[in-house]
Amino acid sequence: MNERNGRVVSLIIGPEAKSALESVPSVTAVAGRGLAGDRYYFGRGSFNGPQFDPGVREVTLIAAEAIAECNRRLGTALSAADFRRNIVTEGIDFAALKGQRFRIGDVTLRWVRSAPPCRYLSRLLGEDMMTGLKGIGGIRAVIETGGTINEGDTVHVLP
């Protein structure tokens, strides 16, 4: 893989805010809604209130490398699901996605903004995630063209 391409190593969803999330082998991405079966798809996420921009909660991504670095920084062994991001990738530099459209499987997504760590995640996990994920919290994206995303799919940055 190069910095402009990577692959999906895990897909993580959960139906309710604050509930445990689970890894699934594939997921349906629906434009304007999110990932089928996920709390934000159902409008039940912790950040679904009217004060939050609905355009930034369809999909979140984090790099497996960031998860490993956070665990190193904190001396923890948190699982990918603990980070509460939907798509875990490896081999792609998220800086290459800034402002870009990208494809995973047959789904087209668009980078919206970074997903910095928040105190909410620190409270849920009882760890200092603000320190652990500083500068490496992942990104948020919207779904432009829906379809299916599978573990192992390649992440392609579009021209």
From TrEMBL:
<dbReference type="InterPro" id="IPR011037">
    <property type="entry name" value="Pyrv_Knase-like_insert_dom_sf"/>
</dbReference>
<protein>
    <submittedName>
        <fullName>MOSC domain-containing protein</fullName>
    </submittedName>
</protein>
<dbReference type="InterPro" id="IPR052716">
    <property type="entry name" value="MOSC_domain"/>
</dbReference>
<feature type="domain" description="MOSC">
    <location>
        <begin position="22"/>
        <end position="158"/>
    </location>
</feature>
<dbReference type="Pfam" id="PF03473">
    <property type="entry name" value="MOSC"/>
</dbReference>
<dbReference type="InterPro" id="IPR005302">
    <property type="entry name" value="MoCF_Sase_C"/>
</dbReference>
